[in-house]
Amino acid sequence: MPPAAAHDALGGQFLRYLINGLVATAVHYGVLRFNIEVLHMSLAAAANALAAVFGIATSFLGSRYFVFRGRQGSVACQGALFLLVYAVIAMLHALVMYVWADRFGLDYRIGFLLATGMQMAFSFLANKFVVFR
């Protein structure tokens, strides 16, 4: 692939990654708010960990069929790698939420944004070069 075509393909892939990430983040955040405001879960970290499951499932489906479409590999293998990567990311996300909201008593919504920014950087690189290569 010529360098210009590779750059355009990567740009399109990154744009799809951003769209997929926004959708997955909206699902994650929606479930987080539901857990805290409707279910009255007292620990933001626990509410966030449960919400992460929904966000991760949305992210995998979008990554496999929208962002990195046309990639070879079995769903089972990609799913296992994806879960491993996201388990690590979810633990880091939960740690940020725990420290930010539960230990420092700061607004969980700001902590969510900080943790999600970290998550975005790690997930694109891991998905592109490890899971959906």
Can you summarize this structure?
This protein has helices spanning 3-38, 44-67, 75-103, 108-131.
List the helices and strands and how they pair.
Blueprint: H1 3-38, H2 44-67, H3 75-103, H4 108-131
Account of the 3D structure:
The chain is 85% helix and 0% strand. It is mainly alpha-helical. Helix 1 packs antiparallel against helix 2 and helix 1 runs antiparallel to helix 4 (108-131). The model has no long low-confidence stretch (mean pLDDT 89).
Please supply descriptive tags for the structure shown above.
133 residues, mainly alpha, 4 helices, 85% helix, elongated
Dominant shape: elongated
Q: In whole angstroms, how far apart are the ends?
A: 16 Å
Would you tell me the structural class of the helices and strands?
A: mainly alpha
- Report the helical percentage: over 70%
The counted number of beta strands is 0
Task: Note the beta-strand portion.
Answer: under 5%
Number of helices: 4
The helix-strand sequence is HHHH
Biggest β-sheet description: none
Oligomer: single chain
Question: Unreliable stretches, pLDDT < 50, 5 or more residues?
Answer: none
Q: What's the rounded overall pLDDT mean?
A: 89
Rg over alpha carbons: 16 Å
